[in-house]
Input
Amino acid sequence: MRIVLDAMGSDACPHPEVDGAIQAIEIFGDEIILVGDSTQVRPLLEARGNPGKIKLIHAEETITMEDKGLKLALKAKRKNSQTSMAVGMDLVKNGEADAFITAGNTGGALTTAYFRLGVMDGVERPGLTAMVPTKDGFCVVLDIGANPDCKPEHLLQFGIMGSVYAEKALGVARPKVGLLSNGEEAGKGNELARAAFPLLQASTLNFFGNIEGKELFGGDVDVAVTDGFTGNVLIKASEAVAKLLVDVLRESMLSSTRTKIGALLAKPAFTALKGMLDPDEIGAAPLLGLNGLVFVGHGRSNAKAIFSAIKAARSAVDAQLIEAMGSAIQEQLQQTS
Amino acid sequence: MRIVLDAMGSDACPHPEVDGAIQAIEIFGDEIILVGDSTQVRPLLEARGNPGKIKLIHAEETITMEDKGLKLALKAKRKNSQTSMAVGMDLVKNGEADAFITAGNTGGALTTAYFRLGVMDGVERPGLTAMVPTKDGFCVVLDIGANPDCKPEHLLQFGIMGSVYAEKALGVARPKVGLLSNGEEAGKGNELARAAFPLLQASTLNFFGNIEGKELFGGDVDVAVTDGFTGNVLIKASEAVAKLLVDVLRESMLSSTRTKIGALLAKPAFTALKGMLDPDEIGAAPLLGLNGLVFVGHGRSNAKAIFSAIKAARSAVDAQLIEAMGSAIQEQLQQTS
Output
């Protein structure tokens, strides 16, 4: 297995990438290819005593958080683009690597993947996913931002892609797929959700029906499907609520000696909460519907997050996710044609 | 001031309603009219030694959580409807009361209000609001479910209604109004949000621009505007995240003697968190855009929540909210015509 890692992705790049790659090499022993500015990466790799299996491929440019619009499109599409994302994804495209990981600009990764890997045959829109912590584990939520305006068929395809990912890469048998709506009852929804409901119901998916936050965070479904606008608002609001609660709690804990002592004693209890809110445990979430595996992690990724991202990508490669997803999409197209 | 209270609204009705009304009478001294099944309400009122100013008006029927569709529409619209909501709102319509409060079926309240009070002149869609706790106070979010599909003009009117409510009833000077979107930059959004942005910007509102969860829960705006589908998903997801975190924390706290002792010592620190998540502090949120003040509280309302709802309704009556909102809507119509 050969994993390509964008060395220039995270806010603190290339340190987390180099350290995460070294950890992964030591545990998994796969080939890892770091792509990025070799003048920055090589000294670091050498200082860590590169365990040998980490290859370094130089890429002159990077896609930054400021790149957007036409500038981003050109960096992503240009034939000889020398951004670390373009160089890395070209390796996947040419069969020289099995998956690409970046902790960089999500829109940049999506745009680069769109132009360089292309959209899977039969897929109308690729989807951005998030792995959302729930009571019992995780829920794959998509789309969380690639497509602010969707058609009902897109939501059906998100359901198929999410379900295949949950089954193959996460090992969930017959994943339950829920449709985010403004009420649990069938018939609830905006125009889009109401039109997507019968498509999901008539599909071969294990369709759970409409869901609200309660079902999503309660762990009732393995996959939650929505348009990229609602999904994005949902994810960002959830993160903001969690942050607000933790901030309020932390501030109150520090407000008196008594509560400080209490907090110290209760510290082990905060570990579960911390673990649940720790994006480093998840590492990265996949872009689905492309001709190649691409995982995008948080800009604040540390070495542990990069390691987790590599682990997630490995599972997808192992499961031959692209082939499985292609078959599922073709099956759906035949069923509805 | 005369407040009508649906005695049959909350899950534990009419106990919280009777107790909340008595508390409010003792503190504010206004006239309160309880509407509901007098065979249930009267004995309770007498057992509490009705302090005199609480009037009781009998209403034969109630709107339950099961009422929906045509059945609900008929109960809401029928000329001689005897539901507690219809009887109560008719008092407001006929000028015999200044505001109506219920902790019952939100859709029932909205439908009854729509048919009995009617929509304010110039308002295209009434909006359901929620008062969302933030870092520094509250944010008025609307629409949270009355209109799953909206037009850009509806979002502008939600902005105006939310702003007038924040200014007049909550006392916020020049309320900042944000537009929920999938990114903070201007230009981000689905079709609806992108079309609403210039309308909000050209209005006389104190428009903050696009917002995400970070700004909403961080207290950067006083009003957050969105369609009823996204708003509903947002509110329910936020509640579910908060519940999940509190559940995880509680469970971990009880997992060992050490953490139990820690939790006991740290107890005062949890009070801030509890207060923030306590819907009873808010009591009820207004339906905006109707010819009359209607406040809807949570089904799980207790006496404290009913008391808070009465307090919120009083502020709106005091501020002559309906008149102020009517003027603001007329101003906007003149500006854009």
